Amino acid sequence: MSRETIVNILLALLLLAVPLGASAMGEPFYITLATRIAILALAAVGLNIALGLGGLVSFGHAAFFGLGGYAAGILATHAFDGVPLFAGIPGTASMPIIWLVAVVVCGLIALPIGAISLRTTGVYFIMITLAFAQMIYYFAVSWPAYGGEDGLSIYVRNEFPGVNTTQPLSYFLICYAVLMAALGLFWLLRGSRFGAALQAARQNATRLAAVGITPFNVRLIAFAVSAMVTGLAGALFADLNKFVSPSMLSWHMSGELIVLIILGGKGRLFGPVAGAMLYVLIEYALGGITERWQFFLGLILLGVVLFARGGLLGLLAGKVRHG
Amino acid sequence: MSIALLIEQLLNGLQLGVMLFLMAAGLTLIFGVMGLINLAHGSLYMIGAFACAAVAAATGSFWIGLAASLVAAAAAGAIIEVTVIRRLYDRDHLDQVLATFALILIFSEGTRWLFGSFPLYLDIPSLLQGAVPLPGGGQYQLYRLAIIGVGVVVALGLYLLISRTRLGMRIRAGESDREMIAALGVDIRTLYTVVFALGAALAGLAGALVGALQSVQVGMGEPALILAFVVIVIGGIGSIKGALFGAILVGVVDTMGRFLLPKALALMMPAAQAGLIGAALASMLIYIVMALILAFRPSGLFAAQS
Amino acid sequence: MVEPVLEIRDLRKTFGALKATDSVSLDLRPGEIHALIGPNGAGKSTLIHQISGSFRPDSGTIRFLGQDMAGLDMAARARLGLGRSFQISSLAQEFSALRNVMLAVQARQGTSFRFFRPVMSDKSLTEPAMAMLERVGLAGRAYVAAAELSHGERRQLEIAIALALGSRAFLFDEPMAGMGPEGSKALTKFLDGLRHEAPILLVEHDMDAVFALADRISVLVYGRVIATGTVDQIRNDPEVRRAYLGEAA
């Protein structure tokens, strides 16, 4: 077993053990903290498909995080009010259906956004993905039907068959299971033929084209899959906070998702998990000491970018290895 | 809708465009010469606004404040160039995005630390208070006209600087070939610091000028930064001409969209609904324009030859 | 006469005032090595770029296996069987030599949109890829990252990739560049046998290799083909001697 595998297993166990312990000691706050880590990690696992494997620096993934959140919020609101969505289609409070809707919506919106954005490269790609996210952000702010700037409350957490989702530990376990499934998906993708083509597109797109694989097609699918996973995380995040607002769509959110990946280790299976743990921990620990914790977060981030380029996993498990 | 109102809105669009040009010119210059994407450019804009407001409040003179904004932003720019930015030129864009994102956090919280969370206010200088009559009746704020004038002067100045001076020659050489300029014996590190400080000063100037129209607060740089990105992407990154064109386009399209779209939709649907949809569409309009332009010209309208 | 595999007619490409490709016509026939020589800046790489699809010509036609290449991008041309090696090695640097070749194998199979099965335990990819590495003599370095291979080994790897694609014609852009005399000799021998598998359009500065291998040679000067012929014809062509070989000799 490689050192990275051992570190990964330890991280997975740690993330599970903390809320179980907190539950035993009657400290629900720490369960919520762990749930937040799991969901942010999930969102970053999604982005890691595009960014880590494909080298696509999407600075607009908050769009999908927020869309997933709004899918949950809107469906739940309609179910709560008993008002059909449109054309007689009712809302729903069932998580599996909400997740499906979130994933499908994000995939469908990611395709045209990706198709336009992927015609560009480098800085243009970074900026055009940012611009698309801003477009959706401003739409959410100025469209009053679902709360506009004020956001939308979910009065009762949505339901999952056979589980009492209002219990913090149960909801954590749902999120944890989804995160593990997404990590499994990432692992399979990375090792597959598609993953080989995607990673080759990052390393050398000309080489990929010269063997007859069109980089655009590979990247577009990766972008859509990436958006779908991040969208699923958004739906879970909305249910965690029982609230969704345009801030989930903001460019700060897009930046944070990238930060999570870099803190943890770009392109690595557990990079997003390590990054989310570190990020939430910094936020919690510094936030307890000073109101100005973001100042120090900035300093830490700057230090990581300038001096510790492999992120946390780079420190714990050494350099990335390829087969 | 009167002609005067239309002219007023057009001038507002032009004024917004000029602001964006001051931001975008620095961004695009820095990218063109050093290949760096700088998210913290919005922080330099904020620093200019705060410096102007604080110094104007202390001295009672807007003009001293304005000078202070240039100095403060240029100094902040030079300091971060020497301490941080310089290490990023050879990194990929992802590292540049992250490091400058970190700078935003540091500058925003740092400013809150120094000035508190309440906004500062900056008065329009007495020399520029009042209004000018518009053709077709109506009046227009003199101060906004002055901003447009500043934009014209800066655009001309940049043109002369780049096409006529030794510094401009070096900038142009630096854009095309870093090694050649080093071989010519130009101290490239100093050149980069100067270019970065120049871009920072322009952003600071923009922040100070806008500070008199809005409140001066933390976070004010971010919407300006994102619009400036839209501008340089439309214009073609690295092109000053593209930045000017893109800035005017974005300024006018955004302002006129907000003004005209609800009115246009009202011809087709009830006024309340038209106002709603119109406002939502107008807020997305420049991003739609940008996506359309990039769909046909993936490297912008005035892309430098690559 | 046999139908040429690759047929270029009246190709033109200008960059500003520079005529990089000036009315070039040439063809590549089955079983031959057609060498393209010329001084630096003669437009050899520009021509290769147009054939492989990274540059679009201003006018003229390129036909490959009877099909017009206009409008087809690099990937589409590669799928039709146009295999190319690059002047400056172009590999997936983080991948091992084996994975670089496996990528070509999966591309040839058209199976790049399979999402789940792990490639490293997939014999339908690893075995053909390993066989290609053996052919070029690189099997012992199969698990070394491309970035860590020597210059000559990267050239060999590029050729293994082109072989794995089952190409119907090869475009090799200076495969000998940076190789020692031993390596050049071995590669010359290898290419000599390869011509029967698929014809080769060979851009090369190593004149010993060119004269040893080429069935025909075209000389490109300032974007124009000033002569095409057998090795002897080219050696004795007065214009070639004046414009090119004369300088070198």
TrEMBL record, chain A:
GO terms for cellular component: plasma membrane. It holds the Pfam family BPD_transp_2. Keywords: Cell membrane, Membrane, Transmembrane, Transmembrane helix. It is a multi-pass membrane protein. It is found in: Cell membrane. The chain crosses the membrane at residues 36-57, 64-87, 93-115, 122-140, 169-189, 210-237, 270-289, 295-317. One of its GO terms (molecular function) is branched-chain amino acid transmembrane transporter activity. This is Branched-chain amino acid ABC transporter permease. It comes from Aminobacter carboxidus.
Automatic annotation (TrEMBL), chain B:
Keywords: Amino-acid transport, Cell membrane, Membrane, Transmembrane, Transmembrane helix, Transport. It is found in: Cell membrane. Its main location: membrane. It is a multi-pass membrane protein. The chain crosses the membrane at residues 16-37, 44-64, 70-89, 101-122, 142-162, 190-213, 225-253, 274-296. CDD domains: TM_PBP1_LivH_like. It comes from the Bacteria. Belongs to the binding-protein-dependent transport system permease family. LivHM subfamily. This is Branched-chain amino acid ABC transporter permease. It comes from Aminobacter carboxidus. The lineage of its organism: Bacteria, Pseudomonadati, Pseudomonadota, Alphaproteobacteria, Hyphomicrobiales.
TrEMBL record, chain C:
CDD domains: ABC_Mj1267_LivG_branched. Residues 6-247 form the ABC transporter domain. The keyword Nucleotide-binding applies. One of its GO terms (molecular function) is ATP binding. Keywords: ATP-binding, Nucleotide-binding, Transport. The keyword Isomerase does not apply. This is ABC transporter ATP-binding protein. It comes from Aminobacter carboxidus.
